[in-house]
Specification:
The complex is a heterodimer of chains A (802) and B (288). With 802 residues, chain A is of the alpha+beta class. Chain A contains 20 helices and 28 strands. Chain A folds into 3 domains: 7-30 and 476-623, Aldehyde oxidase/xanthine dehydrogenase, molybdopterin binding domain (Aldehyde Oxidoreductase, domain 4), CATH 3.30.365; 32-141 and 201-289, Alpha-Beta Complex (Aldehyde Oxidoreductase, domain 3); 371-468 and 635-801, 2-Layer Sandwich (Aldehyde Oxidoreductase, domain 4). Chain A has a 7-stranded mixed sheet. In chain A, strands 7-15-14-13-8 form a 5-stranded mixed sheet. Chain B has 288 residues and is an alpha+beta fold. Classes of the chains: A alpha+beta (802), B alpha+beta (288). Chains A and B meet through helix 4 and helix 20 of A and helix 12 of B.
Chain lengths: 802, 288
C-alpha cells in the first residue's frame, strides 16, 4: 500500500494501487449487463448458417406467435429505418473500396453468422426460442473462404459490383530495392502464415438502449471503448442529431479493440428500443463474440542480407483475409502492418505490398496490437530464418541491424517519425532479466541429453496514440478538472479505460499537479453527457492524452488558486509558497491557508477577495500530442503517431517431440514506454500482452471449414492460456522518454502481443533446430508441431537411406 | 422441446424410476449438472422435464463391498480423487478423477455417474473404470440390474437409455503388487484432452503377468486395448516393448476424432504414445 505517501514526494512514477480496480476485484463492479430498467425487453439475433447466400424469403410468423414476443424484424424492415452504416474508418478515405454495410442482411449474406433477423421478447429465453422459429429461405452461393482464393482470377465477388475481392492494395516502397537484392550475399525467403485469432474479453459486448420519451432521444448503456465516436456513428445511422443520444459506458470487462464501434448491433438495438418504446438489451454470447475475427495474414518475406549480417533490403508481399466488409475499423490493421515495416531495423530499401482482401468469413475488428503484432511476427520470424541461413547468432544479427540510439528522431522509410529509443539497450536488459547465459547452458546440456529446449528473442516496435485524418480516430483528447467548494477533485476525461488502470494514472498526475492527496480524486469516464469531447480508448494513448489534458487543466486551476491565496493572504503572488496542501508566504508570517479554505473562498467570495479569479474551479483543456504530421511529405507519407513504444521479448521453451506439446519455462520483457506513471500497472499490461502472445501461438485459433462455416464456437475450441501455461515473466523497464510528450510518456497499454508471440515461435524453432524443423505456419498446436517433426524425420530417414 | 421445462425431484430411486417411466419423451436426468446445464443454458437442449436426482441419498456414499468398492453415482470428482478407500484400493480411478478439467467448481459439482452417462469421448472416468473391469448398477421401473461398464459405453447413441438411473459402480480392489498408470494429453492447461490411456499391470519377478490398457479421447468410444497388450505378458519392460505397445495401440484407433482438440492422424499417434507412457508408469509403480 503506497497510497499514504505524502504529496510532496509525488505520485508519478509510484506503483500506487488502482482506484477503479477495487470494485471488480471485490465483485462490486456494475457492468453493462447489470443495468436493468423498468419494462426491459431482450433481443436475440437470427444469424446465417451459410457463408454466402441470397436471401429469398424471411418468414417471421412462427416467431411472432410465441407468447412474450414483442417485435420481430427482418433486414427489409430494418432497412426502412436504418440505411447503410457509417464506417469508423471509411476505406474510401484511403482510396479503398467501401461497401454499403447493412446492420441486418437485406438480400444477400456476406458471411457466416451475419444477422438476418431479430426478435424482441420479454425475456431472453423467449427471444431465443422465438428466434429458432424464424424461417429463412436461402439460396447458397459458392463461398469465398481463403484469401488467395478471394484474389484468384474468376472468383465470385463477395460484394456485387466490386472488380476485385480487396478493400485496397497499398505499396510501401523506398530506396533501391533491386540494387539491394542484387548485391546481397544471401536472399532469405520466409513464408509466414498468421492464423485468425482474436481477443475475447471475458465480458462480451452488451447494448441496452433506453428510448427517452420525454426528449425523443436515447440513453445507451453499452460496452464501448469510444463512446463519443460511437455516438457520432449511431446518430448518422439512425438519422438523428448527436445531441439526442447519451452513451454511458460503465465498468468494462476487457475490450482489446473488440469494443471499438461499427458493430451492426449498435444501431439495431437502438432502433428496437425506439420501435417498442421500451428498453431493449442485447448480450452477445460467446459464439457470437468468436465471430469477430482478426490478424489473419499470409506473408512472403524476403530479406537481402550481406555476409556480415547487415540487412540490405526487405521485400514483403502480404495478404490479409479481413472477412466480409464491415463498418468496424478492423480492416485497417493490415494497413498498419505495412506502415510499421521495417520496425526497429535500419533498412532503407523496402518494397512492401499490403493486399487487404475480403472474403465470406466473418469480419475483423480491432485486436490488441492493431496490425503491428503482425509486423513483429513477420519481421522477427524472418530475422531468425536469416540468422539460421547465415549461421549467425540471432541476437548478434539484431544488434547489428537495430537503429542506433543516436538516430532519433528517425524518418522511417514508410514516412513515420520515430521519437526516441535504445533498442540495443532494451534487448540487453531483456536477456539480462531472462538469465540468458544460464538458460543457454541449460539448453545445451538438455540437447546433449536428447531433450529439446529453445530460446527465442523478438523485438516489437509499437507506434502508439494514432491520429488518422478525416476520422474520429483523432489522437488528441480533452479532460476537465473540477474542484468542489470542499476541495474534493473530480476529473472528467474524453478517454476511457478498458481496465488497464489509466484512471489511476490520471489521478496520480492530477494529484501531483495540484499538490494534493491522490486517494480522494474521482475520475469519471465514458459518459457522453458528463465528459468533455474525446475519442476513448485505443492505441495505448489514454494516459498520455487523458493525463496530459488533465495536467494542463490542473495547472490552470493551480494558477487560479495561487492568485486567490495571494489575495487572501494580502501578499504579492510571487511570495506565495504552496507546500503540503497549504498556502503560506514569508510576507504574511504565521498565516496559513489550507487547500480547502482557498477552494471554498473561490466559490463563496466571488464579489470580494475572489474577484481576482474566474469563478468556479473548473477547467477543460485539450492535449494535442506532437510529432504527428498529416501534411504528406514528398513521398506522400504522413506520420499518424506521436510515440513509438518498443520492447524486447525473450522466451525459453521445451518441446516434447513425441507429442508436439510445448512447455514454456520462462519469459522476459524489457519495455520502453517512456516514463512510466505507474510501473506496476505497466508491468500488468506487459504480462497481459505476453499471455496474449502465448495463447495466440499455442492454442487460440478461429477455424472454419471449406464452406466457410465457422467451427470455433466456444471456449472448448478457442482455448486461452491458463495460469499453468504462462511461466514466470520477468519484466524490466528501460525508459527512454519521448522528448515531446507530457512527462516523456510513450504509451503502455497495447504493446507486446506480437513481440511475445514471435519470441515463442523463435524459441520453439530454436528447440527443434537439431531436428531441422522450422515452423512458420501458425499456430504451434501440438498436432502441427508433431507433423512437422514427423516430416523432418521422414526426410532424414530418406537421406540416410540414400 | 420446451421453453419452460417442468422440474421433478424424486427422493428415492424407486420414485425416480417411476417418474422416468411415466414421461414419454423429453426427460433429462440431472445430478451435478456439469454436462447438461451448459447445453440447457445455451438453448441447445430444451428438455420437457428435468429430473433432478441430486438429493437421492441412496446414490451417495463409498462403501467396501466384499473385496471391492461400491461407489454411489452421486460421488463427486472431489470425493473420488481424495477418498481414502478409493485412493487405496482404486488409485487409478482417483487419478482419473483428478485429471478432470474445469477447476474446483467442476470437481465439487460433477459426479461419477454424470461423467459416465454423458458418454463424452473426452471425459476421464470411463477409461479407468474399463481398465478396472468395473460394473454398473442400474435402476429402472423393472428393478436393479448389474452390467459391465463397457455395455453402457459400447454405443454412442444409446447409453443408459431414457428410463434408467445409474445408481452405483462396483469394482474389485486392485491386487497388491499391481501397478497402474493414467496419462492424459492436453494441448494446453485449459484444453480438453486429445487422448488418454489407463493401464493396470501385474508383474511376476519383473515379467508382466497381466496387462490391461484402455484408450480414451482419441475416438468416439473408448478402445479396450487389453487384447493387443496381452502380447506383452511374459516380457520385461524395454524400449522395444514400449515401441510395440505404442504401435499396436495406435493401430487400434481406426476412426480417430479430428477436431480442434487435434487432427486425426496425430490423435491416433497420441493414443499410442499415451498407452506406452501409461504402461511404463504402471510398471514403474509396481517396482516402487
Amino acid at each position: 500500500m503506497m497510497n499514504s505517501i505524502s504529496a510532496s514526494e509525488g505520485y508519478v512514477g509510484q506503483s500506487v494501487r488502482t482506484i477503479e480496480g477495487r470494485a471488480p476485484v471485490a465483485g462490486r463492479a456494475r457492468y453493462t449487463s447489470d443495468y436493468e430498467f423498468s419494462g426491459q425487453l431482450h433481443a436475440h439475433i437470427v444469424r446465417s448458417p451459410h457463408a454466402a447466400a441470397r436471401i429469398k424469403r424471411v418468414d417471421l410468423t412462427g416467431a411472432s406467435k410465441v407468447a412474450g414476443v414483442v417485435l420481430a424484424l427482418d433486414g427489409k424492415a430494418v432497412a426502412e429505418h436504418i440505411g447503410p452504416m457509417p464506417h469508423h474508418m471509411d476505406p474510401s478515405l484511403f482510396h479503398g473500396r467501401s461497401a454499403a454495410i447493412r446492420c441486418v442482411a437485406l438480400d444477400q449474406v456476406w458471411c457466416y453468422g451475419q444477422a438476418v433477423a431479430v426478435v424482441v421478447a420479454t425475456d431472453k429465453r423467449t427471444a431465443r426460442y422465438a428466434a429458432s422459429r424464424v424461417v429463412v429461405d436461402y439460396e447458397p452461393l459458392p463461398p469465398v473462404v481463403a484469401a488467395d482464393q478471394a484474389m484468384a482470377e474468376g472468383t465470385r465477388k463477395v460484394v456485387e459490383g466490386w472488380d476485385v475481392n480487396a478493400i485496397t492494395q497499398i505499396p510501401f516502397v523506398n530506396g533501391d530495392v533491386a540494387k539491394a537484392f542484387a548485391g546481397a550475399h544471401k536472399v532469405v525467403k520466409s513464408t509466414i502464415r498468421i492464423h485468425r485469432f482474436s481477443t475475447q474479453p471475458i465480458e462480451t459486448r452488451v447494448y441496452n438502449a433506453v428510448w427517452e420519451r420525454d426528449t425523443a432521444g436515447f440513453t445507451v448503456y453499452c460496452t464501448a471503448q469510444n463512446p463519443q465516436p460511437m455516438r457520432n456513428q449511431l446518430a448518422e445511422a439512425l438519422g438523428m442529431p448527436e445531441n439526442k443520444i447519451r452513451i454511458v459506458a460503465p465498468t468494462i470487462g476487457g475490450a482489446f479493440g473488440l469494443k471499438m464501434p461499427g458493430h451492426p448491433e449498435e444501431p439495431l438495438i437502438c432502433l428496437l428500443a425506439k420501435l417498442t418504446q421500451r428498453p431493449v438489451k442485447w448480450v452477445e454470447d460467446r459464439e457470437e463474440c468468436l465471430l469477430v475475427g482478426g490478424r489473419e495474414q499470409h506473408h512472403e518475406v524476403e530479406l537481402a542480407v550481406a555476409k556480415d549480417g547487415t540487412v540490405l533490403g526487405l521485400r514483403d508481399r502480404f495478404l490479409a483475409n479481413t472477412g466480409a466488409p464491415s463498418a468496424c475499423p478492423g480492416w485497417a490493421m493490415a494497413f498498419l502492418t505495412g506502415l510499421t515495416m521495417p520496425g526497429p531495423y535500419v533498412v532503407k530499401n523496402i518494397d512492401v505490398l499490403a493486399t487487404i482482401a475480403v472474403s465470406n468469413k466473418p469480419s475483423w475488428n480491432a485486436s490488441r496490437g492493431y496490425g503491428k503484432e503482425a509486423t513483429a511476427l513477420a519481421l522477427e520470424l524472418s530475422m531468425d530464418n536469416a540468422a539460421r541461413a547465415l549461421g549467425m547468432d540471432p541476437i548478434e544479427l539484431r544488434l547489428k541491424n537495430y537503429l542506433p540510439s543516436t538516430a532519433f528522431p528517425y524518418n522511417s522509410p514508410t514516412g513515420l517519425i520515430y521519437d526516441s529509443g535504445d533498442y540495443a539497450g532494451v534487448t540487453r536488459k531483456a536477456l539480462d532479466v531472462l538469465g540468458y547465459a544460464e538458460w543457454k547452458a541449460k539448453r545445451d546440456d538438455a540437447r546433449r541429453q536428447g531433450r529439446y529446449l529453445g530460446i527465442g528473442l523478438a523485438y516489437e516496435l509499437t507506434p502508439e496514440g494514432g491520429s488518422v485524418p478525416g476520422t474520429l480516430v483523432a489522437g488528441y483528447d480533452s479532460s476537465t478538472v473540477r474542484i468542489s467548494p470542499d476541495g474534493s477533485v473530480t476529473v472528467l476525461t474524453g478517454v476511457t479505460t478498458p481496465g488497464t488502470g489509466n484512471p489511476t494514472g490520471i489521478a496520480q498526475i492530477v494529484a501531483d499537479e495540484l499538490g494534493i492527496d491522490f486517494a480522494g480524486i474521482e475520475v469519471v469516464q465514458g459518459d457522453t453527457t458528463a465528459c468533455p469531447y474525446g475519442f476513448g480508448n485505443y492505441s495505448g494513448r489514454s494516459t498520455i492524452v487523458g493525463g496530459g489534458a488533465a495536467a494542463l487543466a490542473a495547472q490552470e486551476l493551480r494558477g487560479r488558486l495561487m492568485k486567490l491565496a495571494a489575495a487572501m493572504l494580502g501578499v504579492a503572488e510571487s511570495t506565495v509558497i504552496y507546500r503540503n496542501s497549504a498556502f503560506t508566504s514569508d510576507a504574511a508570517a504565521g498565516k496559513s491557508l489550507s487547500f480547502k479554505d482557498v477552494c471554498f473562498a473561490a466559490y463563496s467570495h466571488v464579489y470580494d477577495v475572489a474577484s481576482c479569479i474566474t469563478p468556479a474551479l473548473e477547467a477543460t483543456c485539450t492535449y494535442k500530442p506532437g510529432l504527428i504530421r498529416h501534411t504528406p511529405d514528398a513521398n506522400g507519407h504522413i506520420n499518424p503517431y506521436p510515440s513509438y513504444s518498443n520492447g524486447a521479448y525473450a522466451t525459453v521453451c521445451e518441446v516434447d517431440i513425441d507429442t508436439g506439446v510445448i512447455t514454456l519455462l520462462k519469459c522476459a520483457v524489457a519495455h520502453d514506454c517512456g516514463r512510466p506513471i505507474n510501473p506496476r500497472l505497466v508491468e500488468g499490461q506487459a504480462c497481459g500482452a505476453v499471455a496474449f502472445g502465448i495463447g495466440g501461438m499455442l492454442s487460440e485459433e478461429i477455424c472454419s471449414d471449406a464452406e466457410g462455416h465457422q467451427l470455433t464456437r466456444s471456449f472448448m475450441d478457442y482455448v486461452m492460456p491458463r495460469a499453468r501455461d504462462v511461466p514466470e515473466i520477468a519484466v524490466a523497464h528501460h525508459d527512454v522518454p519521448n522528448p515531446v510528450s507530457y512527462k516523456g510518456m510513450k504509451g503502455a497499454g497495447e504493446a507486446g502481443v506480437g513481440g511475445s508471440a514471435a519470441a515463442v515461435v523463435n524459441a520453439v524453432n530454436d528447440a527443434l533446430a537439431p531436428l531441422g524443423v522450422c515452423i512458420n505456419d501458425l499456430p504451434l498446436t501440438p498436432d502441427r508441431v508433431w507433423a512437422a517433426i514427423q516430416a523432418a524425420r521422414r526426410v532424414s530417414r530418406r537421406e540416410a537411406a540414400e | 422441446m420446451s421453453l419452460r421445462p417442468l422440474y421433478a425431484r424424486p427422493r428415492t430411486l424407486a420414485e425416480a424410476a417411476a417418474v422416468l417411466s411415466e414421461i414419454k419423451s423429453g426427460a433429462v436426468v440431472v445430478a451435478g449438472g456439469q454436462d447438461i446445464m451448459p447445453h440447457i443454458n445455451y438453448g441447445r437442449l430444451m428438455p420437457a422435464v428435468v429430473v433432478d436426482v441430486g438429493t437421492i441419498s441412496e446414490l451417495r456414499g463409498i462403501a467396501s463391498d466384499g473385496d471391492g468398492l461400491a461407489i454411489g453415482a452421486l460421488t463427486t470428482h472431489r470425493e473420488l480423487r481424495s477418498h481414502a478407500s478409493v485412493v487405496r484400493h482404486a488409485p487409478l480411478l482417483a487419478a482419473g478423477a483428478g485429471e478432470i478439467g474445469g477447476g474446483w467448481q467442476v470437481h465439487n459439482r460433477g459426479t461419477i455417474g454424470g461423467n459416465i452417462a454423458a458418454l463424452h469421448p473426452l471425459y476421464d472416468i470411463v477409461p479407468a473404470l474399463l481398465a478396472l473391469g468395473a460394473e454398473a448398477e442400474v435402476h429402472d421401473d423393472q428393478g436393479t440390474h448389474r452390467m459391465p461398464v463397457d455395455k453402457i459405453v459400447s454405443n454412442t447413441g444409446l447409453g443408459l437409455g431414457t428410463r434408467s438411473v445409474l445408481a452405483r459402480l462396483h469394482l474389485r480392489a486392485s491386487p497388491p503388487g499391481g501397478g497402474w498408470g493414467y496419462r492424459k494429453l492436453k494441448a494446453t492447461a485449459g484444453a480438453y484432452g486429445s487422448a488418454n490411456a489407463a493401464a493396470v499391470v501385474t508383474l511376476n519377478k519383473g515379467e508382466i503377468s497381466s496387462l490391461r490398457v484402455v484408450i480414451g479421447g482419441a475416438s468416439a468410444l473408448p478402445v479396450d486395448a487389453s487384447a493387443v497388450a496381452a502380447r506383452a505378458v511374459g516380457q520385461r519392460w524395454s524400449d522395444r516393448l514400449g515401441d510395440e505397445i505404442e504401435t499396436a495401440c495406435r493401430e487400434l484407433i481406426k476412426q480417430p476424432l479430428s477436431d480442434q482438440q487435434g487432427e486425426g492422424s496425430w490423435r491416433r499417434a497420441m493414443a499410442g504414445v499415451m498407452a506406452r507412457r501409461a504402461v511404463q508408469d504402471a510398471i514403474a509403480r509396481v517396482a516402487a
